[in-house]
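Question (not urgent): is this output format expected?
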Amino acid sequence: MPQRATRRQRTLRGSAEASRPARAQHPGLRLLEPILQGDYDGLCGVWSIINAIRLVAAPCVILSTKQTRALFAAAASFLDEHGALVSAVTRTVDKNLWPALAQHLHRHVVGSSTLPLELEHPLAKATLTKRHAFAKLERMIVGAGVPVVRVTGELSHYTVICGYSPSSFRLFDSYELHHLRKSACTVTTETSAKHRLHVDTMLVFSLG
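Got this back:
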């Protein structure tokens, strides 16, 4: 039988919830729009990473067209080297290759600029309830982190979470999706939910 939380645990939990604002968004959102993918390609896995890098950098520097093209070229070259370019274009980036692609683009940015870009995989070994996972996501956004997440279910998509409200997550998305309603999302294999957020494979970009 699950143990009931003690009064102290409930108090600490309430204090943590109270310290997090009811809604927030990344400050870079005021400064730029996401790059969009085409109607018939599966490059959301590439553009989600590039859009996350652009968004997290925006308060310090707006990446130029030349810099963004260089990121895309680096992504295409990486996928080609791994024999995955055609499948990425026609379907999507393989979920097992996607983290390595993000690491490759992170190294590209760090090696070609002075931007103190950081990349983390914070929930790789975590087993979380929906409430705890969403709370962690929101704290990342409050801390100016930019989570990039794989979504399955009604969608099969990689997207960038850039903000939240009490009812939804706001997206900075390559396919012009704007929100995911929290009530329609799960972080487990629950079949009744429309969308599953794979927080165990989620990547988070931030500035050091």
